[in-house]
Backbone:
């Protein structure tokens, strides 16, 4: 079936979304510039070589492996590759684009590099060719599927067992099978786990790791965690968040009151996937939301005595990316509070590296608090913090989105239980398109299936 022609109103929306591409290139350039300000070109080149030759099982902090300069340059390169792939695929830019850029730039600080992502991307492209569909239909899933990039690095670099060729072939298979798998896992989670691809990647990793072990490999979980970098990353994060907030308030061609009103309305949504905030509210509220959420994540890590390094900064950037697709202050705070409450009764502490990440990535369950209410969000975070500590070991850290996998398990269990016991949820908020709100003469059209944010059970 051919693509339907866009109405003049829809075409103006897509044109507006495409205008954000230059700003994403500025973001990638700033990552590279900051990296070169922190270190010399010689050390950065040596650091990039070390990153490529490192087995990237979770948790592998590139800041510790190669230094902050090389880690940021690697992030810039991965971000640039992602933007090129999105552009060449002719993907229509929307809120998911910001999610992908946040994920790719964040996780390229601890696991993804500009070499190990290519086989999976090529595999997703081959799947599109096999289905005889445009690559734009699968490009976002292909980019997010690079959560399994450590599998490629391990097989390619493990002396005496794998080879670069075998690692690349495995990457092609992973990229090929994840689009249909992610489509299936999305349905069974009922939109309650924002990191759906992480859940799908976890299932694949549960097959890959035992298979590799049966063939003679010995993958083990590693912990490389940098300390003492707060002074480097804190100013960077604060400046980035303030720029986003001020841009949303003053630089989006909206009156100040309208931008803030849009953000307040965004806070009333549940965040249940799919919730494309860019299409629903426009760029101004999304920028404000991203900046505020980034500050919340940063303050949270500092308040629990954590470290700002590759993994935690990557987690904060991920939260900021998902600020365009489901996360806001009201639905991310309850799961984070649940993790804190868990620290009082569980046999782990908040300053453990894996728990610090759980404090940030538990926000994958933000739709539970937004949809059913904050007490259930606290419960979800409480459960997630313990589940995630045990789901990474069986897959030897090969799934970078381990919190997405554990979040999927929690969501699959909690959703039917809450429906059966509580039978109550927040009232459905009827969302209007941003352009419909701002232009009185714009035609009102029925929402497309991917724009529906709430469903009846």
Residues:
């Amino acid at each position: 079936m051919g693509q339907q022609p866009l109405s003049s109103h829809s075409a103006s929306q897509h044109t507006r979304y495409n205008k954000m591409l230059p700003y994403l290139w500025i973001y990638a350039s700033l990552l590279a510039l900051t990296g070169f300000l922190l270190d010399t070109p010689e050390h950065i080149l040596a650091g990039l070589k070390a990153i490529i030759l490192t087995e990237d099982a979770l948790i592998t902090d590139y800041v510790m492996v190669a230094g902050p300069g090389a880690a940021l340059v690697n992030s810039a390169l991965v971000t640039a590759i992602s933007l090129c792939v999105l552009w060449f695929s002719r993907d229509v830019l929307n809120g998911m684009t910001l999610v992908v850029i946040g994920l790719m730039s964040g996780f390229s600080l601890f696991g993804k590099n500009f070499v190990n992502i290519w086989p999976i991307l090529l595999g997703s492209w081959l799947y599109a060719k096999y289905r005889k569909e445009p690559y734009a239909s699968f490009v976002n899933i292909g980019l997010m599927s690079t959560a399994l990039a450590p599998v490629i690095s391990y097989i390619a670099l493990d002396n005496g067992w794998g080879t670069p060729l075998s690692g690349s072939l495995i990457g092609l298979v992973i990229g090929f099978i994840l689009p249909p798998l992610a489509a299936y896992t999305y349905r069974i989670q009922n939109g309650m786990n924002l990191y759906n691809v992480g859940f799908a990647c976890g299932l694949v990793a549960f097959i890959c790791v035992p298979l590799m072990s049966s063939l003679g490999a010995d993958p083990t979980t590693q912990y490389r965690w940098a300390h003492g970098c707060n002074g480097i990353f804190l100013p960077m994060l604060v400046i980035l968040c303030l720029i986003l907030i001020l841009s949303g308030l003053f630089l989006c061609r909206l009156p100040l009151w309208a931008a803030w009103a849009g953000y307040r309305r965004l806070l009333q949504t549940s965040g249940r996937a799919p919730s494309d905030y860019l299409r629903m509210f426009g760029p101004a509220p999304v920028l404000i939301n991203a900046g505020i959420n980034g500050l919340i994540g940063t303050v949270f890590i500092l308040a629990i005595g954590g470290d700002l390094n590759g993994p935690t900064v990557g987690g904060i950037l991920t939260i900021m990316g998902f600020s365009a697709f489901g996360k806001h202050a009201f639905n991310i705070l309850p799961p984070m509070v649940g993790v804190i409450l868990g620290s009082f009764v569980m046999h782990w502490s908040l300053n453990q590296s894996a728990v610090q990440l759980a404090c940030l990535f538990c926000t994958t369950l933000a739709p539970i608090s937004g949809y059913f209410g904050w007490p259930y969000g606290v419960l979800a975070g409480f459960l997630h913090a313990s589940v995630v500590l045990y789901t990474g070991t069986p897959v030897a850290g090969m799934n970078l989105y381990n919190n997405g996998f554990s979040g999927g398990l929690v969501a699959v269990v909690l959703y039917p239980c809450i429906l059966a016991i509580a039978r109550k949820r927040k009232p459905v908020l009827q969302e209007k398109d941003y352009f419909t709100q701002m232009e009185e003469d714009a035609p009102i059209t029925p929402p497309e299936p991917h724009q529906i944010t709430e469903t009846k059970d």
In short: Confidence is low (pLDDT under 50) at residues 1-13, 428-457. The first helix runs from residue 8 to 18. The two ends are 30 Å apart (CA to CA).
